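User: Hi! I'm working on a homework problem where we have to compare a predicted structure to a textbook description. Could you give me the structure for the chain below?
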Amino acid sequence: MKNTPKRKQRNKPGVVLFTAVAVMLMLSILLTATVSFVSVNRTKTNDNYKSKQAYLTASSTLESFINQIQTDTAPTNDPTAKAQQKKAIDNLKKLASANSGKGTTTNVSYNGSNGKSDNIGTTKITVAQEGTSVANIVVTCETTYLGKTEKVAAHISTQSVTKPAEYTNTIELVGNGNASYDNINVVGDMAGINNTTGKVYRFTNNTSIYGSYLMYGSLEVTTQPKIYLKPSLVDETKGSTVTISENLTVSNVFNIRSTMARADGYNYVNIGQKVSTSNHFNVGDSGFEIDLYCSEANIGGNSITQYGNFYVYKGAGPYQGNATFGADSQTINGSLYVEGNLNVTKSLTVTGSVYVTGTITGKDKINCSAANIHEGVVLSKAGRDARPQIPVSSDEYIYYPEDFFMSTNTDITTISDQYKAFYNGTNTKTFNTFASDSANRNYTLTEDIDLQGNNVKTSVTSKYTLRIDSSCTWANDLDFNTYGNGPRILIDVSDTSGDILIKLNKDLSLGSEWSPVIVVRNRSTIDTSTGDRKYNCYFVSDSGSSISLDGIDSVTGKSKHSGSTTTNYNFHTLRVYDYDTYVRMYSADTLKNAKGDPGTPQSGFVLNPTSVDVAGSYRPSNSGIIFLFGEGTTFQVTNNSFIQGSFYSPEAMINIATQGLGKVYVTDSAGGVLENISCCAVGVIIANSFGNDNTAFYIYTKPSTTSVMQNAKGGKDDSAFGYTLDRYDHY
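Assistant: Happy to help. Predicted structure tokens:
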């Protein structure tokens, strides 16, 4: 259809969001739209007035619809509202895609002030596809008045405008079960985000976290864990925090330190309910203060030493801001604030001031200038003394691996066609398929690479027993004599291959005699808007083809699904590397071996997980290796395994019971180095539950911004789903 605009077309920048309406409600908005039109002398029947009245009726109807939507759909952070916005977009698409894309047409009548129909013409409103994609929609209003017809249209591009998901946690638990961490060491943040009351997490055997810790539930400390509040790996200008929504119980030595000076907004410990100690509790250091907030304190046992302020403020329910200090040795190098009553049973040193709203028992045991002890005061709770908020919930996930596997909505997934191909017979390839092609066996790759980051390229040769360059199933069908004993397998991602999916065959289990080494090389085009490669490599669970996507839950705002196949994976020694890390981590002699454990990294290799370049270290790009495991999947790796990649498995169990890769050196943004550590994984691990039994480290590297993980959830300040109003046209 040829467009002949009779008025200036207007571009409408920005995003217009739909309100929470079902199909009938959306139609009712159209049917009841307020129409602003000029009165004309109905005795005048010349064509100019007829056309003008028809045009004004059509354009006012259309603009009323658009304006009403704009008014009703201000940006929201409420998860339920976001889900309703998504539902409204889906409903609009249903209207547009009806009748093979010709859409849905509705006749509109207009009521005057007396409730009777005004003779201002009849209008048809059509919501239809523009072209072949339902992502592009045209809303047309066509009015006929006394034989004259005018038509106007709004051209809409539907899109997901969710802010790309931020993944800040090295390990994040999504499930509502309890967990114990044994010798786990995390470089980056750690969280338990399911806000179910009564959960208990336990740190045992020298667990360490080098970053922030957020959890909903209670933490029990039994065997000397440590938390180091390091600069944020997301924003290096900021520090980090500890937030526990319920109780903290310390029955063994617990140290919370910092490498940054205190500042508002970070370097604090915030306990939602009660702090109880029966052993050594050390918070902060001289020059590196950490403030502590809670709703009740019962300090006993051996000692407490804090550098920073100690705040005990009233909380919900029974937590009335009361504090008891009865440890053998107790020093607060700062001020003490108690909103309830303070009971001191053993000597307490406070270098600052003591402020108590209620009464003080044992005032004579407080080692502090009498002038600095204040009883019956009102606490300001302002500035530094304001208690940080414990968020009602963390950013929750809307979509799950099942959505990525089966959805037809390209706003959600880009990999469903490849996944479905495993089940509809169009992709029957396995690793053995590539082994049958001599071009992929005993593969040698030579490439010029800037190894030192000084713009000087070096010719690097690496060898592999097998090369994979398209999606296939990893089944236990390779010849052991050729491919056992540490085969190095190259997965080669390119613009030609697109996203490569490696489906792990149901219940795939490989013993230590196999010990595969997977190297993922990605040379697809770099996305100029994100800096990440356009395509990615996905390891996906064999979750079957009977998955049913049941829409978005109206209460939780999360996708619902059913029919996922349960599967268990077991690997005894599995190594997965990003190629660009692999060729820097190992020497030329090691790279020229096509089989065997590559061993520990070469001397001088320092991994940098921060967002800042540090001289002498290698900072990997965002991870383009993604593990997507559906509901009911268990993935277990043991015996010195190492995985460089991100796990998105919110309804699966990840169990990495392994000593990991030894002699890894890791730097922070200031150049400080963790020396000679053992590392299990580099990436992020998001799981329903997580098991470990090791002394190894898990190191943060966020997933590629071009991967489907970016659609799993949105940022805190995003708006969910909407459309862009491209232009108005008058035909």
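For your comparison, note the following. The longest strand covers residues 148-160. The CA atoms of residues 208 and 706 lie 31 Å apart. Good luck with the assignment!
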